[in-house]
Amino acid sequence: xxxxxxxxxxxxxxxxxxxxxxxxxxxxxxxxxxxxxxxxxxxxxxxxxxxxxxxxxxxxxxxxxxxxxxxxxxxxxxxxxxxxxxxxxxxxxxxxxxxxxxxxxxxxxxxxxxxxxxxxxxxxxxxxxxxxxxxxxxxxxxxxxxxxxxxxxxxxxxxxxxxxxxxxxxxxxxxxxxxxxxxxxxxxxxxxxxxxxxxxxxxxxxxxxxxxxxxxxxxxxxxxxxxxxxxxxxxxxxxxxxxxxxxxxxxxxxxxxxxxxxxxxxxxxxxxxxxxxxxxxxxxxxxxxxxxxxxxxxxxxxxxxxxxxxxxxxxxxxxxxxxxxxxxxxxxxxxxxxxxxxxxxxxxxxxxxxxxxxxxxxxxxxxxxxxxxxxxx
Length: 377
Fold this sequence. Notes:
Layout: E1 20-23, E2 28-31, E3 34-35, H1 36-42, H2 45-54, H3 60-71, H4 78-89, H5 94-104, H6 119-144, H7 158-167, H8 173-186, H9 193-203, H10 208-219, H11 227-240, H12 245-254, H13 272-286, H14 291-307, H15 313-323, H16 331-352
Helix pairs in contact: 1-8, 2-16, 4-5, 4-6, 5-6, 5-10, 6-7, 6-16, 7-8, 8-15, 8-16, 9-10, 9-16, 10-16, 11-15, 13-14, 13-15
């Protein structure tokens, strides 16, 4: 057994997976053999979820059936509604609220008592979790902002329905397509921290709701899912300053600040998802206000040329979401809303060939101590 210490498990192979592949040197991301560029431009989120869960892209008939089965699960019951309302009234942090919501979704799931490794039950639970998260998130956001929730519709696709529930009106085709593409880009990304968290939970033979709840909690950390919000807050700070973006970023770096949205544990070049989102940010800017895209480009060009840093997926998702009118503090919950499809796929894969995930630690504490009686300490 190797005694080499790998902090953060960096570079350690922990499993084999057929779901997604990352080439960090080439800037390549693949879902089940398809490049992310191909999928983002030619498939919908529902098609990608089907691909991740079933191994192949669906036929038109399969897609219609799968999409309909997802849409039928969008409603949340009164118990969940009550919890969402309580969380909104308490002004709970959105990711903490989402963590609680995913957990409570199990309370009335028809398959709650199924064996954790029952594939059919897990696929049904997966559809419910993936379908209900957007409904609960939109309701939470509207309630905490003083608006009534908007009931889901079954005649809209996953992305369009969420924007409809969030804003109370159907988005135009450009916004719907942009959001759907963003969901595709975020659906899976190898064995990242939240995915691994879900797998560890599933490896104990805990149920699917427990695994996804673990993943949401892991994604809430600022080193994993919170950078998109940080990026937009930075861009707003640039906008409110008296400085040009280049001057601002130089001043921030000189002051010891870390610029969010740059660098990645796996990619050594620009994140391929960032390339696609930068195109969307630019297109939205051309139809509205170019400054957010222009600020982003100026910051990217400086950090890439001067520091050798490339943007990750969070950098351009920030300005893209902002131009869509999405509240900044639900950027990370939207990440979770998309990644639920990938989390569930990895949990299904874990259950197929399960082994309890149980790493070791090198002990570096004290040795050979004896207990002193309490009155003599």
